[in-house]
Amino acid sequence: GEDSLKLKELMNLCTNLSNKILDLESEILDIKSTYKAKIEKLESRVERLEEENIVLKELKGVHSTIDSNEPIMEKEESSKQGRKIANIDADVEINLEKV
Predict the structure, then answer these.
(1) Rounded to the nearest 5 degrees, what angle is found at the Cα of 91, between the Cα atoms of 90 and 95?
(2) What CA–CA distance (Å, rounded) separates 9 from 1?
(3) Which position has the higher pLDDT, 21 or 63?
(4) Which of 25, 41, 64, 94 fits a 20 to 30 Å CA distance from 8?
C-alpha cells in the first residue's frame, strides 16, 4: 500500500516535471523566434543606414569640391541682395527685359 502510494506520487511528479519541460521548450522556441525576427530587422536597418552613409559621404565629397571653388557669400551680403531684389520688384518704374 505505502509503496504503491509513493510510486503514484513519483509518477505524478515525473509527469508534472515532463510537462514543465515541454512548456519551457515551447517558451524557448517562442523567444528564439522573437529575437531572430528582431535581429533580422535590426540587421536590415543597419544595412540601410550604411548605404545612406556611403551616399552622404559621396555627396559631402562632391559638396566640398564645389564649396572650395566658389566664394562664400556672407549672411549679411545675402540679406542685402534680398532687400535689393525686393526694392526692384516693388519699384514700378523699373522694367526688366527678358533675355
Answers:
(1) 115
(2) 13
(3) 21
(4) 25
Mean pLDDT score of the chain: 83
Which DSSP string do the residues of the chain spell out, in sequence order? -HHHHHHHHHHHHHHHHHHHHHHHHHHHHHHHHHHHHHHHHHHHHHHHHHHHHHHHHHHHHHHHHHHHHSPPPPHHHHHHHHHHHHHHHH-TT--PPP-
Task: Check pLDDT > 70 for residue 94.
Answer: no
Residue 96 pLDDT > 70? no
40 has pLDDT over 60: yes
Query: Distance between alpha carbon 45 and the CA centroid of its chain, in Å?
Result: 6
CB contact at 8 A, 88 and 94: yes
User: CA 66 to CA 58: how far, in whole Å?
Assistant: 13
The distance from CA 68 to its chain's CA centroid, rounded to whole angstroms, is: 32
